[in-house]
Design brief:
Length: 395
């Protein structure tokens, strides 16, 4: 008989051996300490068969920025199973339990990194983030000059507050990035001795941009840019000039950017070998609570009826009335639409892509995943703020 339990520290060794087997990583003190920290930070659920742990996952208690609003997000990670139980429904039971507990805790969004997009679509998750990958040749840096104000190489322990502040200022007006707490910074972002930091300050001494990078590949010949966040164009240019100063010593430069971020204004040659890749998935955990917290753009007094289908989280399935008037937004359950011309129907996958700004309502209506008139889809789109989904964390 299968039983779902919350894993306390007494199950740590069982969970560790499951992760070692499933992910094929070497047993070391570092790997054990890393998992111990993750289990202590997140909520871990395990599936037991005959009192033996066979599958598990962790829900990380994150928050994300959404155009000035902060939303609670459950990050799903470390989804593991022994091979002999795969395909027998234990992961589905874990996911259903995780979603239910997230809802009870007031979590409205959930992200995960899929091994298979098709697999996690079964649980209501859909692609919500893309990234633009650049493979930059050293020759492209020919036009770079030394910045007027030198960029400093700094130590994390000495400049962590400046780096955190730059990240928060940059991300608080974005769609979807993690609002990093100290645990995330220490255990996810700056947890490797390979990570190097550079900081740009303006003429007043105020921190305006940072660069996190490392050397990788054969003979450490690749310059990998982990993060580059600048608050001004001058800071951005200075950080790229700092990178360009390394051109003679490296074979390639790797950078992963937001999906709409273009770099041609910074380089002598425009061919930077960009490649668009799908990234992490998301789903709305609690549609009603999410709509109540969503920062709608007030255009005019109007009403919409949003019907949701959700095979995994039954509390989402139904019809919601969305009323906008005098700067206020009200959300309530409804039995049937009062005005059919303002009725829209879609799966939780589609609603997630729409509200995460991954696709526009008119595009979703055109492709058939959003059932509505073209005019209604456009009217709903007009009520949404504008943004591009952006995520710099992985779990």
């Amino acid at each position: 008989m299968t039983e779902i339990r919350e894993l306390t520290q007494k199950y740590f060794e069982d969970a560790y051996q499951l992760n070692v087997y499933a992910f094929h990583f070497e047993e070391t003190e570092d790997s054990k300490e890393r998992l111990f920290n993750e289990l202590a930070y997140g909520q871990t659920l395990g599936s037991f068969s005959d009192d033996q742990l066979t599958s598990a996952l962790i829900v990380f208690p994150f928050e994300v920025y959404y155009l000035g609003t902060i939303l609670k997000m459950g990050g799903i990670g470390n989804v593991t199973s022994y091979p002999e139980v795969r395909g027998k429904g234990s992961v589905r039971q874990l996911m259903e339990r995780a979603l239910k507990e997230m809802k009870e805790q007031g979590v409205v969004l959930s992200y995960l990194s899929p091994f298979s997009y098709h697999f996690y679509r079964k649980f209501g998750y859909e692609v919500a983030f893309e990234k633009r990958q650049y493979d930059i040749s050293p020759d492209a840096f020919g036009s770079f000059k030394a910045p007027e104000i030198p960029v400093e190489r700094v130590l994390w322990e000495e400049q962590k507050e400046a780096v955190k502040d730059i990240y928060d200022q940059k991300m608080k007006g974005a769609v979807g990035p993690v609002k990093r707490d100290d645990w995330v910074w220490e255990n996810r972002i700056m947890n490797s001795e390979k990570r190097k930091l550079a900081l740009y300050r303006d003429e007043t001494g105020a921190p305006k941009g940072y660069l996190s990078y490392e050397f990788s590949g054969e003979n450490q010949g690749n310059f990998k840019i982990n993060e580059l966040h600048a608050l001004t164009g001058r800071a951005e240019k200075a950080l790229w000039e700092y990178i360009g100063a390394h051109a003679a010593g490296f074979n390639a430069f790797e950078y992963t950017a937001r999906s709409d971020q273009r770099l041609t204004h910074l380089f002598r040659e425009a061919d930077l070998n960009p490649k668009m890749v799908s990234s992490m998935m998301a789903r709305i955990v609690d549609m009603e609570s999410f709509l109540k917290q969503f920062p709608f753009r007030q255009t005019e007094n109007q009403e919409f009826w949003l019907e949701v289908t959700d095979d995994t989280a039954e509390w989402n399935a139904g019809l919601f009335k969305l009323s906008m008037s005098d700067g206020n937004v009200q959300v309530s359950s409804a039995e049937q639409p009062e005005e059919k011309s303002r009725y829209l129907k879609a799966s939780i996958h589609t609603w997630t892509q729409l509200f995460m700004q991954f696709k526009k309502a008119t595009d979703l209506q055109f492709e058939g995943s959003l059932i509505s008139s073209k005019e209604t889809a456009q009217a709903l789109q007009d009520s949404l703020p504008e943004g591009v989904p952006e995520l710099h964390d992985y779990f």
